[in-house]
């Protein structure tokens, strides 16, 4: 995956930082940025813009598995649309995460100021112009503040 532009990178940090601050308090899992590769159950290698894996699933991996591309699909994924991203392809990626076990996913479309919420075994929900979005029962107590993302 090629490097991203400055504005997208800046927004990715804001998203990942908020998730990491929540996780530092709860210690429920591990947070990853866009540099982390995951090998999904279908064999595809993916690197979501931000992701989270529950502590139980992370600790079930060997140290060797933790050091390489992580051989599982994150429980939670975020994709932030950049100017060069195709909405169709990013939606396909979100569906792939869901099909491979992601319990919650957010596709953040800054230009439209909307979030597509992907939940396991449910239809996609589109939130128009939200100021925040909840981590629901996957990230209990977490709320992403979107005011600095838009």
TrEMBL record:
Domain of life from the UniProt record: Bacteria
Boundaries of every Putative restriction endonuclease domain copy: 1-146
PANTHER family to which the protein is assigned, alphabetical: SLL0198 PROTEIN-RELATED, SLR2092 PROTEIN
InterPro entries with a match to the protein in the record: Nuclease_put_TT1808, Restrct_endonuc-II-like, Uma2
Pfam families referenced in this protein's UniProt entry, alphabetically: Uma2 (PF05685)
Protein name: Putative restriction endonuclease domain-containing protein
